[in-house]
Amino acid sequence: MTDDVMQNAETDAAAVDTPLTERIEAILLIIDEPIGLVALAAAVGSPVAAVRQAIETLVDDYDGKGHGPRRGFELREVGGGWRLYVREDHDDLVAEFIGGQAPARLSQAALETLAVIAYKQPVTRGQVASIRAVNVDSVVRTLLARGLITELFADSETGAINYGTTDALLQHLGINSLDDLPPISPLLDDGADGFDEGTIR
What we know:
9 helices, alpha+beta, two-stranded antiparallel sheet, about 45% helix
């Protein structure tokens, strides 16, 4: 038996030894939208019937019908899928907590990079770096992580990724489309500084 086969066998054995409810919880903690029973069963490698029963066990456990106390969250079925939600009792508490958190502000470098992408899109990372005359790799990663920009397509010749803004940016700016961005021309230097008026044609 090869090392890979042995390792896979050990992994499968470990998965079997781990309680099904724990494996389900691990998946439920990372999803950002409800997951159906079939998809959940595939994710944890167990039959749908067993997953359904485990879900019922978790629902009762979180509701305090098991051995422990009622939790501040619940497992709710919504739109044909299951997801963890804060209990309605704590909505005001959570809303107040979130509202009291100072929103993370973008750095000046991130704002400048975002402006270039917004006005020049689709645009590559190299083009943005050329315009700003600095390396923008980390800034682009930050903007991607914030969901303010997205990868649009790869250049057919160079393979360079072209970036554009997302609907999330429009929501943050309070505008309906990129057409609502203010014209950039009035903000740019016309290049006339340092020349006599008589020399300009």
